[in-house]
Structure formats: structure tokens, C-alpha cells
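The instructor's notes for this session suggest beginning with a concrete chain rather than abstract definitions. Hand out the sequence below and ask the class to guess, before any prediction is shown, which regions might be ordered.
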Amino acid sequence: MKIRTLSALALTALLQAMPLPVLAQEPAGAYLAARQARVVGDFAAAAQYYAQALAQDPSNPAMLENATIAYLALGQLDRAVAVARKIEADGLRSQVAQVALLANQASKAEWEGLLSRLQDKRGAGDLADGLIAAWAYLGKGDMTEALARFDAVAEERGLRSFALYQKALALASVGDFEGADEVFAGDEDGPVQATRRGVMAWAQVLSQLGEYERALGLIDDTFGGDPDPEITSLRAKIEADETVPFDVVSGPKDGVAEVFFSLARALMQEANDEFVLLYARAAEAIRPSHVDAVITVAELLEDMEQHDLAIAAYKKVPRDHPSYHVAELGRAEVLRRADKPDAAAEVLDQLAQTYPDLANVHVAAGDLHRSQEDYAAAVEAYDRAVTLLEERDNPQWFVHYARAISHERLDHWPEAEADFRRALELNPDHPQVLNYLGYSMVEKHINLDEALGMIERAVAAQPNSGYIVDSLGWVYYRLGRYDEAIVQMERAAELMPTDPVVNDHLGDVLWAVGRKGEARFQWRRALSLHESEPSPDLDADRVRRKLEVGLDQVLEEEGAEPLRAVNAVPANN
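After discussion, reveal the predicted structure:
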């Protein structure tokens, strides 16, 4: 009873210290506002509203757990722990609360208390608890029991590689590099944890053993000939026969952080972003210098469209860290998504000055300029990227594809076509490239038979892509094969009913087969959709002219070839 009272007092003191939004004082109002903030992923607002509601109803189980989630998602471990302690004092079970309490104990190296919590089944879940216990035993100095715990988890189905990776890190953290290498090499099971971070850890271990050739082979086999700056720096040190310090994990606290981080990365494709974010935040709370965890937090917040929080997370990465460019590229992308293109361009400009030889910085700049329809600047940025990639014998199809689009928009057709065809050399039969090149040739009335073949292959690869099906219908129309065109255009309109260009194209095909009333309906619909959400690809004035005088007259005015004759249709059309 005494513990319960102290927990309630601590929670009340925390809540009273927080700034609260102006809102009606009823708990229901604050609770509903908090729930709505949670739905849209606004953790800052959710935390404030839950705090207000809990000040009036401090034992509400749902609000306690949701407040813990909000605080942990914000990276405010101290506040999450205060609420989690209240949950525990009230005798409630909450995995989220346990994550916060475990992270707190690990960050303070409270190994006895952490083990007691796990023994009482008050852990973070089966995936994490065994590994956390192993690191806690190492924290107590009991390496024998720690290794036994790692081996026990390794016997569980689906967890072997994961547990052996943690075991290798533990061995390396105490200087047993031979043992770590043996586990990493995996004589029985094959190499362990072939992630970027795992390969870096193994390379550091090999350098400690003087196995420089093996380390170089590992890096080259994994990352190829154009690695990022951090890998490049590691490789250069090893190539110079330098013994690289093992710093992936320096002790038990880092080990627990690595468990949470590794789980977050493993669950990114399995669980929702909010759940994964809690594990990533736990890793960051235990080890604030864990840059990979910080970047993972930022990426998750970016995916959740929490732009301000994502920007703040990316900005935590120190300028002198090898992953600084990764964080700045992420920050630039978030700024673009937040409709701040000028700020994004400033970030990328500074990056280009700091990392002039990093191709993906110039690719990102090109993508930004292209999204802003500044195609000349996009081409200039892509040019630098292509040059750098060619120098490293590492051409990338997407860069040529993106530059081709920019050239096409500038009406630089020879350059655009060359880039489209180069993209296809590098990635044959890619449906988006086939479609864009094929459609462009159709619009220019050139190579129509080749264009048809390209678009048919694209449709075969992506039969439910409205854009590609529209292209197929359009090339049939250009070839005068109206009966085939109408089938494809109607299918495209089913797939993309609100796209003004698709509706405009359908109108033209309907006119060509004599269904003129339906054609006018589609043209009017195209204009209506365009007014609601303007499309840069729709020539609205041309559509209005078609409504006024018909497609045949418009084609004559443009000096284009007339439509071929079709059978008469009933007069009411």
C-alpha cells in the first residue's frame, strides 16, 4: 500500500510539472482528444492530453498505458517510467510499461533488479527477455551464465542467428575475439547476422585478430565496390593493417540497447510503426550515442508523417559521425515532405559541399529539383551523380531513368531517349521504364510498333497499373486500332477513375469509335477532376476546345492526321 501511494504521488508531481493545453476539465474530453492525437500519431499532443486526463483519473488503466506509449515514443523515458511505475503499483500488466522499466534499469546498470523483474515474468516479451537476461548476467560479471543464456535462446525456433549474433558481441566486448570470430563464422550454421552492423562488428573483430585479408574480403563481398563513407573509412583502416577498436558493443548496457535495436530492425516489416518505435526509443534511451538507433527512430517518425519529431531526431546525429550524411539526407527528405523545399535544398547544397564525391547526395538533389519541376537543375545534379557512379563502375538504372524524365520534360528528346534506353540496359524489362519510354514515343508519333511492344511487356508485368494500361490503350488509339483501344481505356478508367488524363484519353477513344455523347461526358469529367486537383499533364484548353468543336476539328486545327473512318452509330450518341 505504501509503494502504491508513493507511485501515485510521483505521478501527480510529474503531471503537475507539465504544461497542459487549454481544454474542458472533464476527463472524458481530454481522453477523447488524446485518443484522436494518438490516431494521427501526434505523440506530443497525446502526451499532454493524457497527462491532463490522468491528473483527474490517475488509475485509469487505458490512459496509463497510452500515456506510457506517448512518452516513450517521444523519447521521454523519465516520464514514461513515472507512469509505468504507477501501472506496476496498481497491479496491472503492460508490456509497454515493462519496456520502459527495463530500459530504465539497463541505463542505470541495475542488473540485480533487472534480473528480478525478468524472473517475475515482468519483461518485454519472449523475443527480448532471454537475451536481456544474458547481458544482465554479464553485467554482474557471470560470463558463464551469460553464455548459457545466449545458447538457450539460440535453441528456440527462429531465434538462433539472432541469439548467436548477441553472443558474438558479448564475447568481443570482453576481449574474446577468437570466440567471437568462431561464432560469427558459424562453422555449423553458416555466417551469423549478415546485416550491415553485424558485418562491421565482425570486420572489427577480424582486425583485432590481425586477419586483415579476411576482413577486407568480408567487406568487399558484402558492400561491393561503392560502399558508403563509414564502410569506406573502416575498409581503409583495415587495408592499412590498422587494428580497429571494437566499439559496436562496449559492455552490458550497450548489449541491452543492441537487443532492443536489433528487434526494432527485425520487426520493421512485421509490426506497426508505433510498436517498433518503442523498441528503437528504448535502445536510444539506454545508449544515446547509438546513431543507428537514432536514425531508425527518425525513419519511423518520417513514415508516420511526424515531420517535426523526425527532423529533431535526424538532427541528433553529430556532424563528425560517419553517418551524418545519412541523417542529413533523411532530414532533407522530411523537409520536402513537409512542403519546405527551400530548406531541403539548403540541406542538400551543404551536403554536396561536404561530400562532393557522394553520388546519392546529388541523386537526392536531383529528385528534389524534379519534384519541384526545376528540370534543368535536376539534370545538372543527375549529371554529377552519373559521372561519379560511372567512375566507380557502379551505374544505376534509376538515376538514368530520373534524368531521362527530366530531359523529356525539357523537350531534350535525344538525351531522354538515350537515358531511357540506358536504364533498360541496366534493368531490362522494368515496367516503369518501358511504359515511360513507350508512351513518350507514342506521344511523339515515332517508333509506334516498338512502343506497342514495350507497353505490352509493361502491362504483362503490372496488369493492374492504371497508368500503364492507359498507355496501352493510347498506343492502340494512335495506331488506329480503336476497338482494342476502347477495351484498355475503359479498364484504365476503372483502375484510375479520378485521373483527369485517363478520362481525357477515354473521351478521345470514345469519340474515335463514334460514341460522341459519352466522349463529351468524359471530357467534362476530366475538366472537373482537373479543377479539383490540377494535373500538369492535362491540356485543359485543348479539352475545352474538343467540347466546343469536337475532336476531328481540333485535330484538323493542329495539322494532325484525321481519325480513320468507323462504322456509323445510333444518332442518340
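Then share the key points. Confidence is low (pLDDT under 50) at residues 1-26, 568-573. Residues 375-391 form the longest helix (17 residues).
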